[in-house]
Here is the input.
Amino acid sequence: SDYVQDNYKGEIVKGTVKDFDANGPIIVLADDIQATLKASEISRDRVEDARNVLKEGQEVEAKIISVDRKSRVIQLSIKSKDDAEEKEAIQSLKAEEAPTGDTTMAALLRQAMAKQN
Here is the structure.
């Protein structure tokens, strides 16, 4: 299967840090496909040198932010993946907090008292 054809922008992928170039780490994905991860896409915190944050051989999970099908260059972002996960977590928390009918103690007491009368 063709990794570049099968994986799209916005997808979360796992890879391993292979090497570093001037822009940041080179990440190897499945099928020996290499992807680039700019230092600015590693973290929300400013990263001066990717080597201070990531080590060769380290496994990373990142979001594909661009795929150039001609040059077969995939660009990754850990920062975007973290942002997306945080948004999902916040949304699921909001969904849990959303009132699904009145289940406050006062409402339950009112219901119980109404049944007695």
In short: The mean pLDDT is 87. The chain has one domain: 3-116. The two ends are 70 Å apart (CA to CA). Helices lie at 3-6, 78-97, 105-116.
